[in-house]
Amino acid sequence: MIKLRYGNTNTYYVNGLLIDTDMPNTLSDFYKELKRNGLTIEAIRYVLATHYHPDHMGLIGQLMSFGISLILVDKQKDSVHFSDAIFARQPELNYQPIDENGAFLITCEESRKFLQTIGISGEIVPTASHSMDGIALITDDGNCFVGDLEPEAYIEAYGKGAVLQQDWNRIRAYHPVNAYFGHINDQRL
């Protein structure tokens, strides 16, 4: 696992899979971060968004135009274009919309089998407390990529505490060791 930080969002590289991207118009910084970590764009075969807010999916359309395949969870399908209107108001970002027709569409239940075909042992689980299209990737080696899911310590303070608690209960059932967040420091669980 390699953590890539080239803007405001933590992105992660795991065995050919890029988890999240940053905003559009960060491609040159993305290339520099890949190089700094000994990676090339050719090393990325797939991209997965933990949710479709602008700061987690801004480069996906461009990456797809380079031949990188999108893994799209069925519960995310209606949210893929959530950010299009936001980016339309900012043409200077040069946003390239996502063509979800070329994506690998899977369910959370199918995720383990699909991930095995790309060399990753783990599962994708729904996490709706931050965003209805939220997902987390939990690998069998103890890593959990949660995007903008609030940390467990926030459950009581969080307005949707019961939903956040359900998300963490679902994640904890897999016995992860490390949580990797989109904007805050990684946490040992």
Give the overall shape, derived from the CA principal axes. globular
Spans of 5+ residues with little confidence (pLDDT < 50)? none
Number of helices: 6
Helicity level: 10-25%
What's the story with the biggest beta sheet?
6 strands, mixed
Oligomer: single chain
Distance between the termini: 17 Å
Strand order of the largest sheet: 1-2-3-4-5-6
Question: Which features characterize this protein?
Answer:
single chain; 189 residues; alpha/beta; six-stranded mixed β-sheet; five-stranded mixed β-sheet; 6 helices; 11 strands; 25% helix; 23% strand; globular
What this model shows, in words?
This protein is an alpha/beta fold and 189 residues long. Helix content is 25%, strand content 23%. It contains six helices and eleven strands. It has helices spanning 27-36, 54-57, 60-65, 84-88, 108-117, 161-172, and strands spanning 2-5, 10-14, 17-19, 46-48, 69-73, 104-106, 122-126, 135-139, 143-147, 178-181, 187-188. Helix 6 links the parallel strand 9 (143-147) and strand 10. It is globular and about 40 Å long.
